[in-house]
Amino acid sequence: MSPKAFTSLIVIALVVLIGSQSFYIIKETERAIKLRFGEMIDDDVQPGIGFKMPLADVIKRFDARVLTLDTQPSRFLTSGKKYVIVDSFAKWRIKDVRNYYQATSGDRTRATLLLENQVNKGLRDEIAARSLYEVVSGERDQLMTKLTAMLNEQTQDELGIEVLDVRVKAIDLPDELSNNVYQRMSAERGRESREIRSEGNELAEGIQADADRQKTVIEAEAYREAEQIRGEGDAEASRIYAQAFNKDPEFYSFTRSLKAYTETFEGNDVLLLDPKSDFFRYLNDSKGN
Which pLDDT tens digit goes with each residue over 67-119? Predict the structure, then answer.
């Protein structure tokens, strides 16, 4: 290759290099700033294709979408001097690129670390002003709304970040506090179960006593009715016997004697009777005389 051709090749390479360094592309999902020799000359570079001075200008790009900060679970102290372990997350995005770059040097890791410190500080202050019940359920939504507004105001001024939302994923108790709470709950449930069982036994005894009383009354009434019916039956039987006797006294006496013979001589018993007694009068005389 001739020296002239080699020189032309170098010139073309330099032109291509300078040309590639003279243009930049900013996406719609990005925010960017332009630095010239390390000094910021444009803090709001618009999306699209732009021109910059080769070697002198540098374009810094940042993600403009809504980002999520997932904080590490931390221990906080409530107003009742009870520790809770809070796991939270925050939604944020870059609001002021200049402030963001000046506060973090464009380092997203540093930005999330600073934001996490702000979130934890805000949670610590808000939880310290509330009881355990208020933190867990009573004022949880109110706490999150107030914390979001407070953090958004602080981070926009200090970090150029807009905090869109702060939410708590979980609130847990430390192991030692969980055991104490479980023991208290167990004791309380045991006391309630004993009270319920005692009330049930008292109610059962009342029902049993009432059932026994009703049983006694029913049996007494049944016995009275049975005796009354038996008495009426005996009276009716006596009336029928008397009526039958009046119709044919001799036949009635004969049938009664036969029945007496049957009932007397059923078993193997031995009876010593006078054959001429009145008991055998129908055996000795068919007419019973």
Answer: 999 888 888 888 878 888 888 899 999 988 888 988 888 888 899 999 999 99
- Residue at a domain's end among 125, 154, 173: 173
Give backbone dihedrals phi and psi of 41, rounded to 5 degrees, phi first. Answer: -115, -15
- Spatial separation of the C-alpha atoms in residues 87 and 119, rounded to whole Å: 11
For residues 43 and 70, what is the distance between their CA atoms, to the nearest angstrom?
A: 28
Residue 32 and residue 85 in one domain: no
| b/e sequence 259-271, b meaning 16+ C-beta within 10 Å | eeeeeeeeeeeee
Across 129-206, the runs of DSSP E, i.e. the strands, are 161-172
**96, 131, 99, 103: which is closest to 117 by C-alpha?**
103
Q: Which DSSP category does 274 fall into? A: -
Q: How far is CA 140 from CA 91, 134, 168, in A?
A: 18, 7, 9
Task: State pTM to two decimals.
Answer: 0.55
Residue 97: count of CB within 10 angstroms of its CB: 21
Helices and strands of the chain, counted as H and E runs: 8, 9
What is the rounded distance in angstroms from the CA atom of residue 174 to the CA atom of residue 171?
10
> What is the 3-state composition of the chain as percent helix, strand, coil, each rounded to the nearest 5?
60, 20, 20
Q: Which residues contact 227 (CB under 8 A, 6 or more apart)?
A: none
Q: What's the longest Cα–Cα distance across the chain?
A: 180
Distances, alpha carbon 99 to alpha carbons 241, 245, 249, in Å: 127, 133, 137
Residue 64 vs residues 27, 32, 46, 95, 182: alpha-carbon distances, Å: 10, 9, 12, 8, 47
- 157, part of any domain: yes
Give me the domain span that covers residue 276: 250-289
Q: Is residue 199 part of a domain?
A: no
Give the number of domains in the chain. Answer: 3
Of 173, 197, 227, which marks where a domain is finished? 173
